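Recall the central idea of this unit: under ordinary conditions, the amino acid sequence of a chain determines the structure it adopts. In this exercise we apply that idea directly, starting from the sequence alone.
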Amino acid sequence: MADHLRDLGYRSKFGAWVPHELTEANKWQRLSIASSLLSRYNRKSFLPRLITGDEKWVFHINFRRKRQWVGPAETPSPDPKLDPHRKKLMLCVWWDLEGVIYWELLDSKTTLTAAVYSQQLDRLAEAVRTKRPSKTKVIIQHDNARPHVAKLTKAKIQELGWEVLPHPAYSPDLAPSDYHLFRDLQSNLDELHFENDEEAKKWLRTYFDQKPRIFFDRGIRSLPADWAQVILNNGYLT
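Accordingly, the structure predicted from this sequence is:
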């Protein structure tokens, strides 16, 4: 079927998804930060010190986007809008070259404020002391979401003696959690249905425990090549 449609000039495509349009200022910031980080990395690798983290919604009922066969002059049909009230949990996870250090789930009624995030960082710090006792100089990488850059959070990071890795705005393609961990996680979640929060939590625990160390190592060690591509392409990754 697929070969027959290709012979007729059809193409397999997803429905349209439009990312954030980068402004000239956005591209300049990406270029500037990528240049600075790559220069620092070339002098001495800091990736073993890096802990990267982010948040992602995990739904009880998950769907897989379907590819569509369309003719040469046709566009894919829009994907149906999903129920915004589906039961969900917010996954908060931090990991490094070796694997996941700490993760937790927040219910949909809990707002991730700077106060909540600061408390999470305290728990992360305790997990680092337990699981990575040799990692005494931490560089934390997170995006520019409001709880991550609030004054309270900055004070907490300073109290912990950690450094924050610069991260340009609108750049999930330069955040390992987004382009590596969450992409793989979502592909494994597709089509899964959880009866309750505990079932989702149990599945996530198994997912993280079964991931080999090389998976996490590869996700973070791709950063220097990505920074180089941003420099080569004037702010864009590709």
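The beta strands are 11-13, 50-59, 68-70, 88-95, 100-107, 139-141, 163-164.
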